[in-house]
Design goal:
single chain; alpha/beta; twelve-stranded mixed sheet; 11 helices
């Protein structure tokens, strides 16, 4: 068990004038502090105790949903948490299309006033179905608690300089980016802890600009997407560029591969940390401080990996990720299929009882369907990637399945692609995936990203 005491190690802010010891925060920060203090203990509980506590909370959520949310009016009303646990897997899966079609029927007619103001969170629509999810200020408490837990787990010094390369917000400069004080949007007495400077850059900046920005700003801690840091690391290795202060990189939104982890280690000598979250649900998994897998954030969500029938998949068996937020009483999402696939793991060697999510495989449209109808997840090895670079100087790639028998390999290059290179890349893709159909290679100067800045390495356009 860790002996790190975040209350002593981190410098808390004070919302009360002339009070520097002991410090008191505003009501939101005091709520976050209470949640974090409990979470420091609950992470070490045995798995059975954690699940029991989750179903005590789910019992409250489901009874509220049946009574106040029209969509759930025909759900069975459990008499106890234990009864709910027994019938849980018989409850239907809530698909994204259900949310789109249900409209206001998924909203509670009596959201608890004590949970605070209701907010609306819009997803990016990268799945083709943008949705709006309503939640309360209570959700914000847990979002901030899990953000701080992530910093605690990975022993980040709040005085570090944070850099981020991501989609620019409204009014944010394309380049050279934003510079300011404080890591997050909440600053001054609204912040829970005092944090160092921040510098930001729009993801659409060219890789040369990103490298120049990295060296000029010298952040200690960088947040960006796996595809961005991969391209940046490759460029820095090629140009002999190495930032001197970079200690950690946190990747978000896209699937992180071992190849990118190894590349970042070579280029920067920095630890790479990944987190798993969705815009509509918040934090689902944080990377373990001692391993590369994820710990499910069980104080905030009940996460399952299930088969096509909605039954639990054994450890090590891929399945659909289904999530129930524990505290969203404004718009309960019971057994919501987020659109991702993953694999559960064995209990963690770190000693935490929080369940392990071993692997995040990506979305359903990230599965290659073979001509015989069988599915295969795309995960190119470092060796295969090296073979591709030996054929042509590919900066980025994306594989799109357009039919059962045809793939498109989109490649971004700074030079023209010869016919011979195109043929060799096609054969390389057939061998590496493997895929017995036709592979058409299409060169680009830049690959198109989704509206939220993601670059999916594989997409399937077939049903």
């Amino acid at each position: 068990m860790s002996n790190f005491n975040w209350l002593n190690e981190y410098k808390l802010t004070s919302a009360v004038p002339h009070l520097d010891f002991p410090k008191l925060g505003n009501p939101m920060n005091m709520a976050v502090t209470v949640a974090l203090t409990q979470m420091e203990n609950s992470q070490w509980w045995e798995a059975e105790k954690i699940e029991s506590a989750q179903f005590a909370q789910l019992f409250q959520l489901v009874r509220h949903a049946v009574k106040t949310v029209p969509f759930y009016k025909n759900f069975p009303i459990p008499k106890s948490a234990r009864e709910l646990q027994k019938l849980w897997q018989s409850l239907p899966i809530l698909e994204r299309g259900h949310i789109v079609g249900a409209g206001d029927d998924l909203l509670s007619k009596a959201s608890p006033k004590s949970h605070g103001k209701i907010n609306t969170q819009y997803t990016s629509g990268s799945t083709g179905q943008p949705i709006a999810v309503h939640n309360t200020q209570l959700s914000r408490v847990f979002w901030r608690a899990f953000t701080t837990r992530d910093h605690i787990w990975h022993h980040r010094d709040p005085a570090w300089k944070l850099g981020h390369i991501r989609i620019a917000k409204s009014g944010q400069a394309e380049y050279p980016g934003t510079v300011g004080k404080g890591w997050g949007s909440l600053k001054g007495t609204n912040a829970l802890i005092e944090t160092g400077p921040i510098a930001g850059l729009n993801i659409n900046a060219r890789v040369e600009e990103q490298a120049e920005w990295l060296i000029r700003n010298e952040p200690d801690f960088l947040i960006t997407y796996p595809s961005v840091v991969q391209r940046l690391a490759e460029h820095c290795l090629t140009q002999g560029i190495r930032p001197s202060n970079l200690k950690q990189i946190e990747t978000i939104s896209e699937v992180l591969t071992d190849k990118v982890r190894h590349l970042v280690d070579r280029a920067f000598g920095a630890n790479i940390i990944d987190l798993y979250s969705t815009r509509e649900l918040g934090y689902l998994g944080l990377q373990c401080p001692e391993n590369n897998h994820y710990h499910i954030q069980s104080e905030g969500v009940y996460l399952e990996v299930v088969d096509e029938e909605g039954c639990a998949c054994p450890v090590g068996v891929p399945g659909k990720i289904v999530v129930t937020p524990l505290h969203n009483f404004a718009m309960p999402l019971i057994r919501y299929a987020v659109g991702d696939y993953g694999v559960l793991g064995e209990a963690c060697s770190c000693g935490r009882g929080l369940p392990v999510l071993k692997t995040i495989l990506g979305r359903e449209r990230n599965r290659l369907r073979q001509p015989d109808g069988q599915y295969r997840w795309i995960a190119l090895s470092a060796k295969a990637y090296g073979e591709m670079l030996a054929i042509a100087p590919v900066r980025e790639y994306q594989i799109v399945q357009v039919s059962l028998n045809e793939l498109t390999l989109n490649v971004a290059l700074d030079v023209d692609l010869s016919d011979q290179q195109s043929q060799e890349l096609s054969l390389w893709a057939q061998k590496s995936l493997p895929f017995s159909g036709v592979v058409t290679v299409v060169p680009h100067k830049e690959l198109k990203r989704s509206s939220n800045g993601k670059l999916e390495l594989f997409q399937s356009l077939i049903e």
